[in-house]
Structures are given as C-alpha cells and as structure tokens.
Amino acid sequence: MSDYDVIEIKAFIPSKDFELSKRFYCDIGFEMKSSSDGVAYFSVGNSSFLLQDFYLPAYAENFMMHLLVTSADAWWSRINDNHVVGKYGVDLGEPEDREWGIRDFTLVDPSGVLWRIGNNM
C-alpha cells in the first residue's frame, strides 16, 4: 500500500429534518452505524454516506446520488413495500431501462436530494 492509496470517499448528504431523514434512510435499506453531533453514518454493503443536520434548499435540491445495485427492481420493490412514499411524502419513479445501459429508478428524499438507484444491464 502506498501513501496515495484511497480508502474510501463519502458524500455529506443534507437533511432538512435530521430525525425524519434518518428514519427514511433506514426504511429504504441503509443501516445507521452511528449518529452524533449532527452527523449520521449510513452504509449498505461496502457503500456508505454521511447524513448531516444541515440544509440549504438550493444545495439539497441540486444534490444527486447514484447507487449501483445488483437489482434495481428488488430495491424498488423494497422501497415500495415499505410504503416510503406515503410515510415520507417523497417521489418514487418506476424502474426503466436507460439508453446508457442502466436499469434504474429515481427517488427523492425528504430534503429534495435525488437518488438514482440502478443496475447495469
């Protein structure tokens, strides 16, 4: 290992209502590993992000995350079956095959952050 090897990179995702957003991310399939001082650490598999108790509308509404999974349809079903749209008032798009070789769907979190969750075709 060299001094220049990268261990990981994490995004800091904004939240308008920190407690609500923590519940939302647990309901869609992430595990909250820790939460303190306005930052919660979430992971699933070998992917993770930090949710922050910080919100600026222009920042949150222009923030996008991409989660590459083995099955977009399975993720969509879990999110739909957990009634995330009704519980959180969020937008959930239908899975679609994209011309760039991804099958994905969109999900907008309670703060306006856009997620694209998909699998390679």
Question: Which tags fit this structure?
Answer:
alpha+beta; 2,3-Dihydroxybiphenyl 1,2-Dioxygenase, domain 1; 5-stranded mixed β-sheet; 4-stranded mixed β-sheet; 4 helices
Radius of gyration: 15 Å
Give the CA-based shape. globular
Largest sheet: 5 strands, mixed
* Highest-level CATH class: Alpha Beta
| Helical/strand content category | alpha+beta
Order of helices and strands: EHEEEHEHHEEEE
Summed up, the domain count is 1
CATH topology: 2,3-Dihydroxybiphenyl 1,2-Dioxygenase, domain 1
Q: Spell out the CATH superfamily.
A: 2,3-Dihydroxybiphenyl 1,2-Dioxygenase, domain 1
Question: How many strands appear in the DSSP assignment?
Answer: 9
Distance between the termini: 33 Å
Number of helices: 4
Q: What is the structure about, briefly put?
A:
The protein is α+β, with helices and mostly antiparallel strands.
Break the fold down into its secondary structure elements and pairings.
Layout: E1 12-14, H1 18-28, E2 31-36, E3 39-44, E4 47-52, H2 57-60, E5 64-68, H3 72-81, H4 84-88, E6 91-92, E7 96-97, E8 102-108, E9 114-120
Describe the structure.
This protein is of the alpha+beta class and 121 residues long. 25% of the residues lie in helices and 36% in strands. It has 4 helices and 9 strands. It has helices spanning 18-28, 57-60, 72-81, 84-88; strands at 12-14, 31-36, 39-44, 47-52, 64-68, 91-92, 96-97, 102-108, 114-120. Strands 5, 6, 7, 8 and 9 form a 5-stranded mixed β-sheet that branches. Strands 1-4-3-2 form a 4-stranded mixed β-sheet, covered by helices on one side. A hairpin with a 4-residue loop joins strand 7 and strand 8 (102-108). It starts with 11 loop residues before the first strand and ends with a strand. The mean pLDDT is 96.
